[in-house]
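Q: My labmate handed me this sequence with no annotations at all. I'd like to see what the chain might look like in three dimensions before we decide whether it's worth expressing. Could you predict it?
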Amino acid sequence: MKATLDHVGIVVQDLDRALQFFRDALGLEVSSAEAVAGQRVRVTEVATGGASLEFLESTDPASPVARFLDRRGPGLHHITLAVDDLAATLERLRAHGVKLVDESPRVGVGGSRIAFVHPASAHGVLVELKQSNPTS
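A: Here is what I predict for the chain of 136 residues:
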């Protein structure tokens, strides 16, 4: 299994305000915001020349991102690893006794397929697995 760093997810209270620093002050390239209804967030990616930064703003006070923000405040939320075959990766993790947040893939930003690994199995880090161009 090959996995590469795709992006780092950062929870913010106010997406537009966060971008004032990363876009306006640092001059980084920012994508248009995309609403991901299933996750109840608004997402913007910031290019960094390799892996990107993904900023998440909750669109629902009951969403997991809003709960994270209430408990921990803004900051690092997850890391995302790109994989070629998400279903096979999840099967391998299950075979190794890894606790998963998502037992099967769901739709993520840009139509990608994603699944999260529980922080309890990843030394306290929420890990998102992403398959960009799913064939099924």
